[in-house]
Amino acid sequence: MLEEIRIRGLGVIDDAQLELGSGLTVVTGETGAGKTMVLTGLNLLMGGRADGGAVRTGTSRALVEGRVTIDAGGTVAERAAEAGAELEPAEPAGTGRKKTERVELLLSRTVMAEGRSRAHVGGHSAPVSLLGELADGLVAVHGQSDQQRLLRTSRQLAALDRYAGAAVAEPLAEYATRYARLRAVEAELDEVTSKARERAQEADLLRLGLGEVEGVDPQPGEDDALRGEEGRLAHADALRTAAVTAHQNLSGDETVPDAPDVLGLMAQARQALEPERDHDPELAALADRLAEVAYLVGDVAADLASYGAGVDTDPERLAEVQSRRAALTALTRKYGETIDEVLAWAEQGSRRLLELDGDDERVAELGQERESLTAELGDLASTITKARTEAAARFADDVSVELTALAMPHARIVVEVRPRDAFGPNGVDDVEILFTAHNGAQPRPLDKGASGGELSRLMLAIEVVFAGADPVPTFVFDEVDAGVGGKAAVEVGRRLAMLAKHAQVLVVTHLPQVAAFADHHLKVVKSDDGRVTSSGVETLDDTGRVSELSRMLAGLEGSASARAHAEELLETAASSKRRR
Questions:
Q1: How many CB atoms lie under 10 A from the CB of residue 432?
Q2: C-alpha distances in angstroms, 187 versus 180, 193, 194, 365, 405?
Q3: Which of 34, 84, 320, 520 fits as disulfide partner to 25, beta carbons 3.0 to 4.6 Å?
Q4: What are the RecF/RecN/SMC N-terminal domain coordinates in residue numbering (predicted)?
Q5: Cα–Cα dist 19/178, whole Å
């Protein structure tokens, strides 16, 4: 909801601040240029085209700032946050038990006299196009502005669906689920069939690789084990010689009499210590340690003898190991760094081959599922089309009734629900609202069949019928009262008040019958110091409203009869709003 707009240096407006509230806000005044600048400022704030000629004479730039409150979890807040905007907490808003967390968003637009413009969203610089994106969920402008939201057929379809309620919403939800699945099935089916050759080639390569791995039949960790065995077989003689030499050094060489050995020398050392160990505990400890070392050396000597006797030269086994390692190396060059990685590749390849070999079965399954989904979507689409058609007829009748009350008794609308040849995300229907201003005229699209004033009233009638079903929180009407007066003008005001029960409504008007229904009345005031004429905006209290309505009725604020008539209009409007 728009809370506040400030306009500086725009056209005849020097500095004006509009404080808006919920319900119906009307803008009146003697100066048409001032009222136009209010709408121009709003249009700039919503991303409209900038014109340097609108900058106030003698000023280098114009600035429009706005403060809006929005749902914290809504699409507008999400989009603004994505752009880096800062969102400030606002007072919670809602009705009944349902409360919605709200945040404040600051928007601004600066227009230079030479035509350049800059935009800021939430305190951060942003492209002007972002203001337009945000405006789509904030404000619906009906009038001279080009922001005619409901002139787009996609919006008309969405609005009709909301108007239809559960009759469309429930089957449409089921339809959307099945439609998404159909898209996924068709994509997979296309993938399988259109790439059949590539998949067949992939399957052949997998079979070749898996056959090669199966032929070698590697075992987990086999490459590491064979590497160690090959090292032992290739150096068997050197290993045996080293073991025998070490054993002889420890325990003596039987072929060389009196050759020194470690075990003999250690035995002599123990014999030297044993007789004296009882005389000193420290020496006794050293003797014990020497005995332990002797036992360990003896064990090592025995193990060396056993190892040397066990080492055998086996050229045939060495050849077998080398051949096996070569076969394993051929696998690791193609399918993995190690045999364990090769085995993992083979496992994955086997699963993938099963998938590829099952293509024919998968194609049949997908085809059957596609047929089933298509039939279900057809039934749901028929249900949706029927509900839309019924809602379209009701909607057209309701709008026609509203148009009659708005001094357009011969005008009517036709809502066409046209079938398409293919399923779409929202069914098989195209929806378009057509308008005819009088009997016998051919219905035409809204932007081609109605004049400016007719279009504003038509949009008012449509929005009143849609009231409560449209998610846009703020509506702006310009020229909605063009070409009407008297009772029709009262009906325009009454319907604006009806719409204001469901949304914030801002109206620029010159009719007192419309202004009388306002919840908030803003007046554009003109001042002239003899050199420069400027306009500002002030909020009227009850007394000020009577004076302004008197001026609008008779052109004289002090006329007693005009004041009486103004008070009567205000009472009539208040009574009408109370009854509703």
A1: 15
A2: 11, 10, 10, 14, 53
A3: 520
A4: 2-531
A5: 48
> Residue 79: is it exposed, middle or buried by C-beta count within 10 angstroms (0-12/13-18/19+)?
middle
Residue 198 CA neighbour count, 13 Å, CB half: 5
Q: Is residue 288 domain-resident?
A: no
- Residue 103's DSSP bridge partners are 70, 89
Q: What is the pTM (predicted TM-score) of this model?
A: 0.61
Q: Is residue 439 part of a domain?
A: no
The whole-angstrom distance between residue 501's C-alpha and the CA centroid of its chain comes to 31
Residues linked to residue 424 through DSSP beta bridges, in sequence order: 427
Return the closest-CA partner of residue 405 out of 492, 346, 330, 473. 492
Neighbours of 234 (CB within 10 A): 14
Q: Are 207 and 353 in contact (CB under 8 A)?
A: yes
For the chain, the residue count is 580
**Residues 538, 522: contact at Cβ < 8 Å?**
yes
Strands (E), 425-519: 427-436, 444-445, 474-478, 504-508
Whether 19 and 500 have beta carbons less than 8 Å apart is answered as: no
CA dist 528 → 27, 56, 533, 534 (Å): 21, 15, 4, 6
Question: Of 138, 155, 176, 123, which is closest to residue 47 (Cα–Cα)?
Answer: 138
The long-range contacts involving 297-302, CB below 8 angstroms and separated by at least 24 positions, are: 297/250, 297/262, 297/263, 297/266, 298/251, 298/263, 300/250, 301/247, 301/250, 301/251, 301/263
Tell me the per-residue pLDDT of 43-84, one tens digit each, with 9 for 90 and over: 899 888 888 888 888 889 999 999 999 888 888 999 999 988
Rounded CA separation 154/573 (Å) = 36
Interior/surface letters 188-221, b for 16+ CB within 10 angstroms, e for the rest: ebeebeeeeeebeebbeebeebbebbeebebeee
Distance CA 500, CA 506 (A): 9
d(CA 577, CA 519): 10
Find the domain containing 516 and state its range.
Answer: 1-143+473-540
pLDDT tens across 190-202, in order? 887 777 777 778 8
CA pair distance 395, 414, nearest whole angstrom:
9
pLDDT value at residue 477: 84
Helices 452-466, 153-164: crossing angle, 10 deg rounding: 30
Place of tokens 């002889």: 248
| 357 within some domain | no
Domain count, the chain: 1
CA 99, CA 303: separation in Å to the nearest integer?
A: 86
Top-confidence residue, 409 or 555 = 409
- At 48, the amino acid letter reads G
- Note whether 571 and 517 are within 8 A (CB): no
Q: Would residue 396 count as lying in a domain?
A: no
Residue 71 gets which letter from DSSP? E
| Maximal C-alpha separation, the chain | 151
- Bridge partners (DSSP) of residue 414 are 434
Domain holding 99: CATH number? 3.40.50.300
**Calpha distance 233→17 (Å, rounded):** 97
